Amino acid sequence: MKKILISACMLGDKVRYDGGHHLIDNPILKRWQQEGRLVPICPEIAGGLHTPRPPAETQCKFPILITTRDGEDVTPEYLSGAEKTLEIAKRENVCCALMKAKSPSCGNQRIFDGNFTGTLVEGAGVAASELIRNGIPVFNEKQLADLFAFIEDSERMSA
Length: 159
What we know:
- This protein is α/β, with parallel strands linked by helices.
- It has helices at 27-34, 43-46, 75-91, 126-133, 144-158, and strands at residues 3-7, 38-41, 56-61, 64-68, 94-98, 110-112, 120-122, 138-139.
- Helix content is 33%, strand content 21%.
- It has a 4-stranded parallel β-sheet.
- The longest helix is centred in the middle third of the chain and has 17 residues, at 75-91.
- The model has no long low-confidence stretch (mean pLDDT 97).
């Protein structure tokens, strides 16, 4: 039975920067949770940040710099969270991850540009990047059909 890493906010945990969650009400995800297949993580909390916290965006990719709107450098917490996320993914032997789109930690395709204007740019958050670099596919909440097909295919291949 394949395990899936999932952003904790998607399971209803109130870990988002604003103290909220991003619960995904989906019967397949509910079944996987009941089966113990979902491995929840909030990279930002794992890295030592608290809820609520100021919003943060990636200012620069190389070298990485993530700051709050007030200019506070939170890069060390984001990097620590990314490392812990990868450690958990490896320890739990997950086949893939479902992570929150646009997040500076979890976004897998596009993230905010660092100007706090809502503008998106191509790229992945630090935790998602770490997973992808280590061969763990990352999906976001708008790619549930792709995630379900990926799991179905990987389970059929290993049967």
